[in-house]
Amino acid sequence: MLELREITKKYKDKTALEQVTLTLGKGIYGLLGPNGAGKSTLMNIITGNVRPTGGAVCWQGKEIRAQGAAYRSILGYAPQQQGLYDNFTAVRFLSYMATLKGISRKEQSGEIERVLDFVNLTDVRNRFIGTYSGGMKQRMLIAQAVLGKPELIVLDEPTAGLDPKERVRIRERIRALSGERIILVSTHVVSDIETIAGEIILLREGKVVDRDSVEKLCEKHGGAGGLEEVYMRVFGEEERDASADGI
Ligand code: ADP
Ligand code: MG
């Protein structure tokens, strides 16, 4: 179980997250909010990459900072940014990540085969990642995130910049991951998560507006038009603000 207790994050005068308290058990969660809502900041705090200004993150009841490598070994994370590993082949990149995760040499090759097959990149495993399409790079990021069968998987906008076909493909890969684990997927695109998430967390200006099943959110926020309409009602103004700022 993952618990966020009154997480606040301030960047100088900007409050990116304010008093976020959440408890997540097994299942797929959609973290939904417009650009600038604080999704990446929240994920960076969950993964331990960013230190919160206030509050605590606990895994199985213990602060993640006190767990170090033990926490990293149950965690899989796909960051929002692509292009960092363009000079690696898929196999080299995955063995590098597997080593960082503490997967033994003996287990590595089997595990790499498994994740390549999972994201359907076996055929291009010896090509440089820089030659991949955006969708393939994104599947590569998912592949490294699932190395070692982590209990907690955090995917930051895994469908950003993809065409509709690849979006569906990524969505189906995420669905296939569900089971005995926690999966948190951020997006500002409703269709990415509407059919796969058991619960949606609505994040607006650093605060959790609501969290519930799609069905309940529609009831509560009057979305006869589904989650898309809930989104428009909850975030309508912010979306316009964000685009006005050019974020
Ligand atoms: P999202 O992922 O939902 O688009 P972010 O978590 O990236 O949102 O950003 C939330 C807010 O925090 C934004 O206003 C953003 O400009 C600000 N922010 C994020 N990272 C930094 C940083 N390193 N320094 C200053 N401000 C930041
Ligand atoms: Mg983001």
TrEMBL record:
Top EC category: hydrolase
Q: SMART domains, alphabetically?
A: AAA (SM00382)
Gene3D superfamilies tied to this protein? P-loop containing nucleotide triphosphate hydrolases (3.40.50.300)
Which Pfam families does the entry link to?
ABC_tran
Q: What broad taxonomic lineage does this protein's source fall under?
A: Bacteria, Bacillati, Bacillota, Clostridia, Lachnospirales
Per its record, how is this protein called by name?
A: Putative ABC transporter ATP-binding protein YxlF
Q: Give all residue intervals belonging to the ABC transporter domain.
A: 2-230
Q: Does the keyword ATP-binding apply?
A: yes
Q: Which family does it belong to?
A: Belongs to the ABC transporter superfamily.
| GO molecular function annotation | ATP binding; ATP hydrolysis activity
- Keywords of this entry: ATP-binding, Hydrolase, Nucleotide-binding, Transport
Enzyme Commission number: 3.6.3.-
Task: Supply the source organism for this entry.
Answer: Acetatifactor muris
Xref: InterPro entries: AAA+_ATPase (IPR003593), ABC_transporter-like_ATP-bd (IPR003439), ABC_transporter-like_CS (IPR017871), P-loop_NTPase (IPR027417)
The yes or no answer to whether the keyword Repeat is present is no
Source superkingdom: Bacteria
